[in-house]
Task: structure prediction
Amino acid sequence: MDCLFCRIANKEIPARIVYEDDLMVAFEDVNPQAPVHVLVIPKKHIATSLEITEVDNALIGLMFQTANKIARERGVAGSGFRMVMNCNKDAGQSVFHIHLHVLGGRLFQWPPG
Ligand code: 5GP
Ligand code: ZN
Result:
């Protein structure tokens, strides 16, 4: 399957990996939108949030725990950070392998643009 984030998870394409375990990989976004901008992905290919099913419930929980770990390590847990998963075109999803953006280190606006 020709998926950019599967290729990053398989180390076929380089990325600045900041965390990895059996199920997850987290790496620096190549085009950061905040001082902290890390992407957390499951190694399992899931194209969009709409393809998440009951078998993935534990995996999705682990994604959030991984995001929390990164936020704490980067020192933005207390000050605040944003976790974002875009789904499909209007939300701006550009890579069709689910990923949680972990953004922090600056003040964010709400509602988002
Ligand atoms: P989306 O728009 O799908 O929510 O987010 C995709 C994210 O992946 C974007 O923030 C983009 O900068 C990042 N990205 C795209 N290609 C690469 C890449 O090759 N390496 C890394 N590290 N990030 C990428
Ligand atoms: Zn993939």
Summary: The CA atoms of residues 13 and 27 lie 12 Å apart. Helices lie at 4-9, 57-73, 88-91.
